[in-house]
Amino acid sequence: MQEIFFISIYSYLLGSIPFGLILSKIFLKKDIRQSGSGNIGATNVLRSGGKVLGFLTLIMDGLKSYLAVMITIRFFSDYFFLSAILVFLGHLFPIWLKFKGGKGVATYLGILFGLNFFYAVIFILSWLTIIFITKFVSLGSLVSSLIVLSINVYFEGLNDSIMLFLFLVLIIYSHRANIGRLKSGTESKINL
User: Fold this and answer.
1) Cα 173 to Cα 95: distance, rounded to the nearest angstrom
2) How much is the pTM?
């Protein structure tokens, strides 16, 4: 029971670190929540602060989840699923920002690197390809998450795909406004 409590605390708190907000306040001297989409994630930081700051946010949000799951794999391997879910939920619902966080894609990518390097590479390649073709970051995130899940179902079966299915559901949830804009043709495009 103590192990579960400890894992839950460090996973959630690491996930809750709002790097997009921190970096924008340090380098842009502004609250990123007052710019663009109002989101603290890498895409909004990229749009509001430039490619370097956007990329740095992406890396930092990925590293926090990677760190959480690698600590868990190293010391509490039976609780990987718990750690992965809580670091992700920490990013979506950070305690420091009244539970209004990012959309979780970079955090999910960090989890994938901890889970399976091959899946992380597949996600990146499909994400970049879709963005290059369509210019929609949200579409790239949604489709790439589905691709990773589909590959896992094919190779590992349904029982070993529950965690990735849950992540897909959460990513769809966090992108619900984007999905509405994609349907209406008002979603913002991005130039990389």
Assistant:
1) 19
2) 0.94
The tens place of each residue's pLDDT in the chain, 192 residues long, gives: 899 999 999 999 999 999 999 999 999 888 889 887 888 889 899 888 888 999 999 999 999 999 999 999 999 999 999 999 999 999 999 999 999 999 999 999 999 999 999 999 999 999 999 999 999 999 999 999 999 999 999 998 887 799 999 999 999 999 999 999 999 999 988 876
Q: How far is CA 173 from CA 3, 89, 97, in A?
A: 30, 12, 19
Instruction: Tell me the Ramachandran region of residue 39: left when phi exceeds 0, alpha when psi lies from -120 to 50, beta otherwise.
Output: beta
Select from 23, 5, 17, 190 the least CA-distant residue to 102.
17
| Residue that has been written with the tokens 């921190």 in this structure | 22
- 59-94 burial: b if 16+ Cβ within 10 Å, else e: ebbbbbbbbbbebbeeeeeebbebbbbbbbbbbbbb
Distance CA 174, CA 129 (A): 22
Q: By C-alpha distance, which of 70, 67, 65, 56 is closest to 16?
A: 65
8 within 8 A of 86, measured Cβ to Cβ: yes
